Amino acid sequence: MRILITGASGFIGTNYLDYCLARGDEVVNIDIKLPAKRGHEQYFKQCDIMDYNLLEKIFCDFRPSHVVHLAAKTDAHFYFRPLPILSPYGGRNEFDQSMH
User: Fold this and answer.
1) Which domain, by its residues, includes 51?
2) Which residue among 24, 44, 58, 89 has its CA within the 20 to 30 Å range from the CA of 31?
3) What CATH number does residue 40 fall under?
4) How far does Cα 76 stand from its chain's mean position?
5) What are the pLDDT tens digits along the chain (100 aa)?
């Protein structure tokens, strides 16, 4: 399988990426932050899922058979300050690209 994973630089994504690699899957990690695990750099594409044009290019270049969406805002500091309005368009951008 060719799996595009959003958020694979985080804790869950890092472990899921390892799982996919152990199965022999081809993977690409789309995230705004660098991979947490050494060795995952080769699968990394820095991209904000809100950037439709860059996301489209990555989808067209990689042509995934599956998309696993793990990108999320995990900042716990919102308890101390207002949480910025988060747009649902990042997930919609992924969905749009997966339909091509």
Assistant:
1) 2-73+80-90
2) 24
3) 3.40.50.720
4) 20
5) 999 999 999 999 999 999 999 999 999 999 999 998 999 999 999 998 888 899 999 999 999 999 999 988 766 555 555 545 555 556 666 666 666 6
